[in-house]
Amino acid sequence: MRLSSIYKHGFGSLGVTVDKQIVYTMSAMEHNPIKGVVSKGFPNVIRRTKESFLVVAIPALLCYLSYDWGTKLQAKLDRKDPKMYENDV
Amino acid sequence: MYRGIILKQQLKTCANKWFASQAAAAVQESSSPKLSELKNGLKVVTANQGAYGARITLLVKTGSKDDAAPGLTHCIQATSGLTNNKNTAFLTTQLLSALGAEMEVIAGRENIMYTVGCNPNVVKDILVDVLYPVVLGAKFPWWEVRDVVSLMKYQKAIAETDPCYLLMESAHKASFSNSFGSPLLCPDYMMGQHTTEMLVSRHNSTFNLKNMVLAGTGISQDVLIDAGLGLENLSTGKEAEQTTAPKFVSSEVHVEKPSDLVHAALTFPGASLNNKNAVALSVLQHAMGSISSIKRSSGMNHGVVNAAVESATNAVFNTSTFSLNYADTGLFGVHVVAQKNDFAKVMETTAAQCSKIASSGLSDTAIEAAKQRLKAKICMSTENSSQTVEDIAVQAATIGTVATPSKIM
Amino acid sequence: MASSAVSRLSNALRRCTIQPSRNIFPRRMQSNQAAVKVNTPETRVTQLANGLRVASEDSGISTCTVGLWIDAGSRYETNENNGTAHFLEHMAFKGTANRSQLDLELEVENMGAHLNAYTSREQTVYYAKAFSKDLPRAVEILSDIIQNSTLGEAEIERERGVILREMEEIEQNQQEVVFDYLHSTAYQGTSLGLTILGPSENIKKINRDDLVKYIKQHYNPSRMVLAAAGGVEHDKLVNLAKEFFGTTVSNDSYEATPLKLAPCTFTGSDLRHRNDHMPYVHVAMAVEGVGWEHPDTIPLMVANQIIGSWDRSSTNGAHFPNPLVRRMAREGLCVSFQSFNTLYTDTGLWGIYFVSDNENIYDCTIRVQDEWMRLCTELTDLEVSRATNTLLTNMALMLDGTTPICEDIGRQMLCYGRRIPWPEMARRIAYINVNDVKKVLGKYVWDACPAVASIGPTEALPDYSNIRAKMYKVFH
Predict the structure, then answer these.
(1) What is the ipTM of this complex?
(2) For residue B305, what are the domain limits?
(3) Which of C178, C449, C455, C467 is the best residue to mutate to test the A interface, defined by the most A CB atoms within 10 Å of its own CB?
(4) Which of B15, B104, B148 sits opposite C385 (nearest CB)?
(5) What's the pTM?
């Protein structure tokens, strides 16, 4: 805190007045952390899975396929040509 | 240490005493007040209405009208319960709460009342151990007098937020030329100016047994007499001399406060408590209308002033009449509240109505109704022990007798 | 007596209390004081055929108080009709089918009688105070008010304005506001969280039909008590009740009547309204207590008494036996504080209301919670016996005159279904010992989630999680 500010507004005050601010809080102990895990949570998982299945699955499949194709191609390209070593001793 | 042991014993036995008092309370059904005077000059008065708890008031006949220095009474009130010849402030408070009692000090224009509410079985202990030392043996050490200033300032600041208090102060100031009009609470320029010497000399001159009344409800008179007999006059003063009655003067006082509402009091000389006209004036007060007894009523049927103003203006207003009776004087008046724009009109009508009543009187029906209201008010006030104890104490102090409700009727 | 004619206006007599005043709370908040009086005159109870209970106590004096205590208040309302009970109270003395408002006022005033009414969260009360000989007329007037109120449109419109103004007035009273906040956060989502006055939108739209419907639903004889005290003969009162209330048929069968109270769940939570323009912070902090009938009520009241109450105008604070009073007075941390125990049918709020400024509010809160924790763990025998003594005196002195006794009868009849005789109550209080108090505090206060409501410059008020963390202590 700057000295000039203390001089101006008094110790502990920032010289700001707040009005009409209402804050609600609920005790953390009032929450039940596992409430509705089975009854609400499980169906929710199904719903959310359903809703975003295609969004996730298609790109994932495409990624898989392209990666698979890529790695396979790479492996293929990396293969040594046996003909080149035919004359080795 | 010794006092500490007593304190502990009292604590243990006090709760059980409630059962013992069962029989005592049942016996005290007769309610006519009894008055007797002890050899040492103390007047003892009791009235019982079968209340379970007891209330005792020790009244001292002195108040702000006797203030040589303005605010002295206020200072005495504020220092009450502090160091005295028997107990420290600490012990006074501890004893009171150990006995389950509570004490209240009320300082007025002509009386100071020390009221204690407690279990009837501990009355004697309280009187001897707490109340007498507090009242008769007050010491006023300078450090306590100094410390009490902030409390006085706080009390005054709180009181001044109440327009009725300001109004009544101004009404007294305007109506009485001598010290009767002096303020109840210490004026600002006197805050912290009271010294131990001033307080002690005032205490010596006025706090003596001839000047006091011990009143009680819910307790038999024998107990109070018993507790009062052993008292000696500690102060050297004589009985208060009869001062000349304060004279009523016509004048006006204005106090300006930023507010939409204007309060005003129109006062007339009233009757003193032992004057025959006191009752007549009280009837007039109810005929003109005091505070209405119906919640949120229109006020139209309560007295003639409200009705008259209502028919003359369409302002939002209220009037109520008061009649104060002191020992040798009185104050009768009308309290008017209205919004500032309508105020002049309302006040004019009220004043006109007052002079009309003065010249042509009131109708018989209005007076009958007012009598009925006054009777009801008196009877209802005897129900309540805190009000009764104050009433009998004031009466015994100022007129020397105690009137029964039936006698007044 | 003659000097009682001295108008009380002359509060010439400014009061200074040595014992901190007990009755700062206005009536709406006052349900916490379970006061009982000597049953020297016995309280007699009769139930009429239609369910109306008549209870009275005869002390043989020349005046009496008679009133109707009705089991209805803002708790029985919903978000849509909140405020109706209070609106009805306003309409009560505004004329009936048999007499106009002016006639009613004239009649009552000329009898020298008083008429009063008030609404709380669980009860609605109408009472009259009169000469004993006028008892029949008083009962007749009460029955007329309850059963035949005109509820004229013009009066309703006028009262709407009056209530809105009353609301503005109450908003100026920080204590009322803070307690409304406390209820709204502690009982969030339930009907106890509603205010008594209701929101202004409701007041603007309540009409005659709503009022009539409310009367039909709630003002039925099985939920009413006709209580009287003073010079009242019980048999005479029963006959009067039969004459004036006997014809009202109990309509418990009315389909919409909520026959059972919905439970109002307490939620440990916090609501803070920050307004830096106000000079003081007003805080109400409470844990869930118990309802009227629960045996733990009395130890909680004793605990309240130990905490005590104090404000700056009382002298000698630094010498008080209550440690919190002493601390606050010495350190000058707050302007005033008051412990309270508000009781409802099945729940209650036990806590403290305090007023302090921005700089001291943090310390003040800590001190209060320290004291709570001290009571839970280190309470002494001496303190408990002192508190029971004071409680007994307060209760005995509170019942002063016919009106407080009548209020006591009416309230106890509704809460307990009977009048508790004084010896019983006094014994129950006197036999409370330190272990009872500790046990009860351990049950309701120790490690409980408090509800906190505050208004004013609340910047320095500890965060809710900090307040919650101070509700227990780790010893080493």
Answers:
(1) 0.83
(2) 261-381
(3) C449
(4) B15
(5) 0.83
